[in-house]
Amino acid sequence: MHETSIGAQPVTRLGRRIGEVDVVRGLALCGILFTNIPQLTYLMRSDENGDFYPIAAAMEFLFSQRFFPIFAYLFGLSFALFLDSAAKRTEKPYLVLLRRLLVLAVFGWLHQMIHPGEALLPYAIVGVVILLPVSLLPKPLILAGGVVGTLVPLAVTGGGLLLVPGLFLLGLATTRYGIVHTLAKRGWQLAALLAAGAITAAITLPLQADSLQHSGFNVVSGVAGFGLAVVYVTGLLLLLRTPVAPVLSAVFEPLGRMALTNYLVATVIIIAVDGPLEMNESGRWGVMLLLAVSILTLQTVFSRLWLRRFRYGPVEWLWRSATWWEWAPISRRTAQS
C-alpha cells in the first residue's frame, strides 16, 4: 500500500488497486449510513393511511439492499489482499488472518450492543467458518462457489444475510484471478457489467414499485438491489477514468480508508441525536437526510485531516495492532523516519 497523503490527488497517483478499492468502499459507507439511520431510529415508512412517505419510497429504490452487497464483496476482496500481503511478512499468514477476524468479531460484538443487526460480527463469523478454509481451494472452485452462493439466495429468498458467503467468495475470486490488479485494462468488461446491472434494475424496479410494501422481503427487491449495486460499483470505477476522478477520490477515498472508524462512530452519533431530533418512530425523513449529509460531511473533513498526519484511522490502527500483536506505527512522520 502506498502511504502517500490523500489530499486531492487522483486515484492513479495513490496506486490504482488500493485507491480504487477505497473509493468504492467510501461510496458503500455513504449508502450504508442512509439505510442505518432509519433502522436505528425506527422511522416509519408509511403514514397512518398506509401511503409511503416520498423520501422513504426513494430510499427503497436507491439505497435499501443496494450497498450491503458492495460491502460484503469488498470484504472478501480485502481478505485476499491482506492474506497475500501477510504471506510476504510471516510464515503463518492464516494464523494472522484468523486473529484479525477474531478481533473484528470483538468489535462487532461490542457494536451489536447498541446496533442490533449490525454487519461486523456476522462478517467475522462467516470469514472464519467459510473464507479461511475456502481460500485454500483452487481458483475455479472459489469462483464457482461465489457464483452459486450469490445466485441461489437471490433466486430463492432475494438475498439478505444469505448472500454474504457468496459475495465473500466472489470478492476472494476477484483477487485470486488478478482482476483487482488489472482494472486499468478492463474498461470494456466494466462497461458490460454496468449494462447488465442496468438492464436487471430496469426490469425489476417497476416490479418492486408494484409491491413496495413488501420491499426488502422478496426476490424482486433483492434482485433489483443487486442490479443497482453492480451499477454503482462499475459506474464509479468507470468515472475514475474521467477528469472527475480527483474529486471522487478526495471525497470517497478518505471515508473508505477509515471505513471501520466512520461506521462505528456514525452509530454513536445517530443514537446520541435520535432523542433531541425526535426521530424515533416518526416520519421525519427530511431530518434523516439532513442528519446523514451532516455526518458524512463531518466524517469526510475529519478523515482527510486525520490521514494527513496518520497512516490509519483510530479503530483501523487498533485492529492492525491487535492483528499483528504489536503496536503499529501510526504517525506518518514516525513511519518515514
What does this 3D model show about the protein?
The protein has 337 residues and is mainly alpha-helical. The chain is built from 14 helices and no strands. The protein has helices spanning 16-41, 54-62, 68-87, 93-112, 120-134, 139-156, 164-176, 187-210, 219-239, 245-257, 259-277, 285-309, 314-324, 332-336. The longest helix has 26 residues, at 16-41. It is globular. The two termini are 17 Å apart. The model is unreliable at 1-17 (pLDDT under 50).
Question: Which characteristics define this entry?
Answer:
337 residues, mainly alpha, 0% strand, globular
How would you concisely characterize the structure shown here?
The protein has 337 residues and is an all-alpha fold. The chain has helices at residues 16-41, 54-62, 68-87, 93-112, 120-134, 139-156, 164-176, 187-210, 219-239, 245-257, 259-277, 285-309, 314-324, 332-336. It starts with 15 loop residues before the first helix and ends with a helix.
Strand content: under 5%
* Discrete helix count: 14
The total beta strand count reads 0
Q: Average pLDDT, to the nearest integer?
A: 90
**Rg estimate, integer Å:** 20 Å
Query: Which class best fits the helix and strand makeup?
Result: mainly alpha
**What separation lies between the terminal Cα atoms?**
17 Å
Question: What secondary-structure arrangement, pairings included, does this model have?
Answer:
Elements: H1 16-41, H2 54-62, H3 68-87, H4 93-112, H5 120-134, H6 139-156, H7 164-176, H8 187-210, H9 219-239, H10 245-257, H11 259-277, H12 285-309, H13 314-324, H14 332-336
